[in-house]
Please model this.
Amino acid sequence: MEKTNELALNFFQDIQQGTLEYCFRGIFTKSITENILSLAETNLEKENSKSAVKRRVYFIMVEGLQNVTRHQEIKEADEQNRGFFLIQLRGGNYFVTTGNTIENDKIGDLQQKLEMVNSLDQSSLKKYYREILENGELSTKGGAGLGLIEMSRKSGNKLHYSFKKIDEKISYFYFHTQIPAESNAEMPQLAPTIEEGSLDKIINFHELLNQENIILSFKGIFDQENLLNILKMIEEQMKSTPQSIKIFNIILEQLQNTVKHGDVLNNEKTGKPGIFFISKNEKSFAITTGNYILSKNYEALKNKIDYVNLLENEELNDIYDKVLLDIDSVSAKKTGLGLIDMRIKSENKLLASFYNLSPEHYFYTITIRINKSVEKIKSLYIKSSEDTPEVILDAENGIFSISKRSYPENAIEFYDTIIEWIKRYSKHPNKETIFVFDFEYFNTASSKQIMKLILEIEKISTKSNITISWKYKDIDEDMLSLGLRFQRLVDLNFEFNEVKTI
Model:
């Protein structure tokens, strides 16, 4: 994950050459395309470019995304070669780049169309466009469609492209357009060439995204409007599962922290510059954000993160509860409630890095890792002896019981194993847990440990529907009384089951 934070710094430093950049890599659907366009439209409105330029950029985005959606010849399982979209504003130019797989036997025809469009000047393109409209069919000059012609006309540049061979059947097709951010004319004049090396840089960037398996990234100004658009894009892609809800909640917290607590380098910005991306591997998802912070706030923030990382789950929850009960809202900021919340939800330590960029500012990145699958807890089985009970703790089959006699030589040592198992189980309990106590007899030393065990079980009640099944013989009033005593001391559902003696 340290590599991920360094990657965030490199991405972010690169943005200083521009004011906007975001990309999406994955399977393109209608809803995802709509979300990408919505986010782009919001950010285009914030730029100082002329309305005519923004309209041209938006048109090229729509055409490019439609082409990706229409022609992505890819199976969902193929992670490396999914669709790709990138928009940038750099050095006075907008760049729109798309990528998708294409069958090798279709490359020749597409390349011919692209080269034909690139061979025409602005006047010839306009004439050819009208010819297609009037005839209602494609010209015999090579068959380039209206979309390619219009993207060339509206960009004011030649169409740039590249094919990268994947195997004998398919290649990856990159389509790249450049639109000047400033133009006095309603329709720009066709420029002789695109910025040298711009597509090569993007292909290298895309390869890096593939290597790190970055699904979505956003570099630019973070404000509430962008936050809502990003969340909408993520929410519509996720299936409704307990893990996806957890991931969404952590993303929300991280983005809000960037919007609220990030700093600006000058007073001209309307929001906080920052970066956000999601990556994944076989075992986990990683959510990374990065933004400026004031140097004077560095030490306090670092200490909070170090402190939160030292705490165990029980301690984290205790602090969280205390802050919630404190009506002084300032205490939440002092304690770092958001950091505690992310630590609890992710069940992993927070990985933060700080880079001193100037006397006034640090660049701060934080990565939260969420495990993809829950590691199954191994069952615990302890065979009974003359002085120790039988213990069966089997989460997979839903069997939780302690039975027979309990008066071991060292009750603390014996029950510690059971209590530690319950603590591990508490991280991912079953929806319903029925814990059966079926003692013939236990001594006072055991009763203290049983109480401790029940208190641990009580903590799970926020995640699982807990029932304590307390069994006793009809002739054993003491065992019933002990069960009733435990019931009074905790907030749990007790069921008392009388066992008839013969």
